[in-house]
Design a protein that fits this description.
The complex is a heterodimer of chains A (161) and B (514). With 161 residues, chain A is mainly α. Chain A contains four helices and five strands. Chain B is 71% helix and 2% strand. Chain B contains 22 helices and two strands. Chain B has a two-stranded antiparallel sheet with strand order 1-2. The chains are: A mainly alpha (161), B mainly alpha (514). Chain A: Its main location: membrane. Chain A: One of its GO terms (biological process) is positive regulation of amino acid transport.
Chain lengths: 161, 514
């Protein structure tokens, strides 16, 4: 039902200092009857933006009692962003751990192989590793250790045959 | 007013005790249990107590890192999720809880912790927090693996600088009494100048603390002022709408007079309105102390959201928080792992990776308690009671042991062989008299404070009001508190008792043989 209204059809009353007022919309074509409230409400809901911009106001500064404005929800992506970042960091950390553990196992295997080789050679008597109290001399800090001259020249103690 | 006692404590307690612990670790070249056993066999309980305290600490401390990870991952959004309130179900306004409080507090209490109204209502485990906690423990494990790779005591007498980097990361406290300092110092060269390092470390630590507290208090004041002004604005809007007054007739300055005027002229409407009118006061805002860990997250995220390019500052801040937190965790785990790897029984059977992995796994599983809805209340229990009393006692026993049982002359000689000069009179007076007296008085103060206040209370988040309320602890929570304190403090006398009994038995066995 298309009906045209003029500015004079909108009647104000109860204007206060707060710049708040009651208004009714009359229908001049139908003998000054008021347009029902629900119709006015629906119209305002549809044209809220135009009404706001006409007064250079916003939903926060222009309030229609009984007409609550719907707020726009924030944009939410399909997968939450934080899960993506979490996944990236988790993969990096797990890769680092796996790498370090494997490297540690390999290093230990190499050390075991070296020590068994060295034991075999010692049994054959081919390699003399200078040992002081069970610790190889290369590992000791020579500042702290002290080589005893009496035992150093061990092979000269026995007279040669 | 706070700086004076802070500096007195630093000079009388912090520096001397830090120097003492570093020297002990460096001299004995053992973790905390071994070091104290060497000083006197009756003191093995002190080392065990340190390890127990470190164990409690590592249980709950990594939850802070989990929260830092959570905030860090959420910093990659525009706008930041704690900058605005979410909408309610029919999209007509903001969530009710978020309206009553600020958006940053809502993000912390509802979306991060999903906190329950009280300790008794345990609720479900938050899987997001559990994930972040697992990640935090994986990071700690990775750093420990790296640590044990580069440091070794018997094989290579190299000088790892791990403990120096730990010093800059000991942010929240000097880490005295945890055994982590002794553990780190035991990796030092015997000739390391620990006296100079002790002074430097404590000075750096205190300047960082002072700087951080200045920043924190200024942000805190900003937040209180902001909340106060928005409270006033809400009251003004309510009055303007109710009494149809002219815009601008009510301002913050004339609010009180206008309220009295309106109460006089329109008593009935005013009486209807008065339950909604909050009495805004700046002092009340400043008094609502956001305590402990919540401070770091709520206050700083509040400050960050008001900056330009908040995502950048948010990422930077939480990365810094993570580095500090992981550094502290490394110190704690070193304090636990060093005695374990020192002992022959365990170290020969299992490789280092397995021991560290088991320790991390156990702590992670126990830490899942703190990811439940009531988890933050349990966290506060651990935070307040696991370390404070026990640390005081441990540090007291340490000073008395080194000064009077080991003998301060012997200690002087050890320091002379290590550094090359004897400690001057300042250190000796502090170790022998000032520090023990101060610690004893602190101890007495704590106990009397507890006895006077009666039952213990905690702050619970009330979602309906949007603020913290005080509640009493239930009995089982009090039992847990008692257990926490007892578990670490009882180790000291128990250790002495066990050693005494063992010596007695050995003497009897020897005498019967002879």
């Amino acid at each position: 039902m298309m009906s045209f209204h003029e500015i004079s059809d909108v009647l104000l009353c109860n204007v206060t200092d707060r710049v708040s007022f009651w208004f009714v919309v009359t229908d001049s074509s139908q003998n000054m009857t008021t347009v029902p409230g629900s119709v006015v409400e629906a119209a305002i809901r549809m044209n809220r933006n135009r009404i706001n911009s006409a007064f250079l106001l916003s939903d926060k500064t222009l309030q229609f009692l009984k007409i609550t404005s719907t707020l726009s929800p924030p944009v939410e992506p399909s997968t939450p962003v934080w899960l993506i970042v979490f996944g990236v960091v988790l993969c990096l950390i797990v890769a680092g751990i796996v790498f370090l553990v494997v490297a540690g196992i390999q290093q230990r295997k190499k050390k075991n192989k070296e020590s068994t080789e060295r034991e075999n050679l010692e049994e054959k008597g081919e390699v003399t590793v200078t040992v002081e109290n069970g610790i190889p001399c290369e590992a000791l800090d020579l500042k702290a250790g002290h080589i005893n001259g009496v035992f150093a020249a061990d092979d000269e103690r026995f007279t040669s045959l | 007013g706070f700086l004076i006692p802070y500096f007195i404590m630093l000079i009388a307690e912090g520096m001397p005790l830090l120097y003492l612990e570093l020297a002990v670790g460096q001299r004995m070249r053992r973790g905390s249990i071994g070091a104290w056993k060497i000083i006197s066999p009756y003191l093995c309980g002190v080392g065990v107590a340190s390890v127990v305290v470190s164990f409690f600490l590592s249980m709950y401390y990594n939850v802070i890192n989990a929260w830092a990870f959570w905030y860090l991952f959420h910093s990659f959004q525009d706008p930041l999720p704690w900058a605005t309130c979410p909408l309610n179900s029919n999209r007509t306004g903001y969530e009710e809880e978020c309206e009553k409080t600020s958006s940053t507090q809502y993000f912390w209490y509802r979306q991060t912790l999903n906190i329950s109204p009280s300790l008794e209502a345990s609720g479900n485990m938050q899987w997001e927090q559990a994930l972040c906690l697992t990640l935090a423990w994986l990071v700690v494990y990775l750093c420990i693996l790296r640590g044990t790779e580069s440091t070794g005591k018997l094989e290579q007498l190299s000088n790892p600088k791990t403990w120096i980097s730990a010093a800059t990361q000991i942010f929240f406290s000097l880490g005295l009494g945890f055994g982590s300092l002794i553990a780190f110092a035991s990796y030092n060269e015997p000739t390391n100048n620990c006296e100079r390092h002790a002074i430097i470390v404590s000075l750096i630590n205190s300047t960082t603390s002072i700087f951080a507290s200045i920043v924190t208090f200024s942000i805190y004041g900003f937040k209180a002022t902001f909340n106060y002004e928005s409270c006033i604005n809400k009251v003004i809007l309510l009055l303007l709408n109710a009494f149809d007054l002219e815009e601008g007739s009510l301002t913050a300055d004339n609010l009180n007079e206008m309220k009295d005027y309106l109460m006089a002229t329109h008593p009935q409407e005013y009486a209807q309105l008065s339950p909604q009118l909050k009495n805004c006061s700046l002092e009340a805002e400043l008094d609502t102390a956001v305590q402990g860990t919540g401070l770091a997250f709520i206050v700083y995220s509040e400050a960050i959201k008001n900056m330009e390019v908040p995502q950048l500052y948010s990422v930077l801040y939480f990365v810094m928080l993570l580095m500090l937190g992981i550094g502290s965790m490394l110190g704690n785990t070193a304090a636990i792992l060093t005695p374990l790897t020192d002992s022959r029984v365990i170290a020969t059977r299992f490789p280092k990776e397995v021991i560290s992995g088991v320790v991390c796994f156990i702590n992670c599983v126990i830490g899942l308690i703190f990811t439940m809805e009531a988890g933050n209340y349990w966290f506060d229990i651990f935070n307040d009671y696991a370390a404070t009393l026990s640390l005081l006692l441990i540090v007291l026993v340490e000073t008395i042991a080194v000064c009077y049982i080991y003998g301060i002359r012997r200690f002087e000689k050890d320091l002379y062989t290590m550094i090359g000069r004897k400690p001057n009179w300042y250190w000796k007076i502090m170790w022998a008299f000032a520090s023990p007296l101060l610690i004893i008085s602190l101890f007495i103060f704590y106990l009397t404070d507890y006895i006077l206040t009666g039952t213990l209370q905690y702050q619970a988040w009330d979602a309906t009001q949007g603020q913290l309320v005080t509640k009493d602890y239930p009995s089982y929570a009090l039992a847990v508190i008692g257990l926490l304190v007892a578990a670490s403090t009882m180790c000291i006398p128990l250790g002495a008792l066990v050693t005494f009994i063992r010596k007695r038995l050995k003497r009897e066995r020897v005498s019967t043989v002879a």
